[in-house]
Amino acid sequence: MRRSLAFCLVISFFIGTISRTLAQTSLTPATPLGSWLIATVQLPAGDKKWGGFAELQARSNGTFSQYFYNELKAGVSYDLDKNFSLMVAGGRYATYDYQDLSAGPLNTEKRIWEQLIINQYLTRLKFEHRYRIEQRWFTYRDGTTPYRNRVRYRLNMFVPLNNRTITDKTAFLSLYDEIFVNPLGPTFERNRLYAGVGYQFDQRWIIQLGLINQTNYNPATFESGVFTPQLATGKNNIVVGLTYRLKRSKNSEKLPSQPD
Q1: Model-level pTM?
Q2: Given a cut of 90, is residue 150 above it in pLDDT?
Q3: Which of the listed residues 25, 90, 176, 225 has the most CB atoms within 10 Å of its CB?
């Protein structure tokens, strides 16, 4: 009875989160619903504990239209055990003016990051804590090349619906919130809130469909006697993710988290 009640509470919380995500709009309400398309190839850690991934991501300002952004990234991971994993990865990120793609990117970013993941398996509920430190090199169209650091933390919860573990032929819910912190300020830079559903067909193929709200924050300022309050601009996006795992001999439960 207690387990059933807890499961019902989780489902209610999940539905409430989707509602809050849909309700979170930017200060520019005319902003259309965007879309993120994510394709990932993973090499899960096997007996040798070494793994990795490669990912291609495209984003559009409208729903599957007005393409403006892409990511290409890859990394190497090492599992200390089932609950602790380390990763070093890097990627290239490009942002365009969707109204003039032929002009080339507005800016490109080269990024390296170090990451620690801590997993918790609580019977039906699965939690992933992800800690990441990023080093970021930018090249803007005007020739400037700034450098920035960033720290990220993501709490991701998974709930398998028709099995106790996320394995073959398992439908599941996924919910996460991630904060982005700039050590030099503004301290609180960005927040992502995601809710979605997924299906693991077998040990190789996983598909996920969800909704993400990404909100960027600019700090309050006081200049020349004029106070400008904190500015928050957010956007809702449909997320479609497809993951292909290279099969390894070790077939323990692996949480279907997105590397982004």
Answers
A1: 0.85
A2: yes
A3: 176
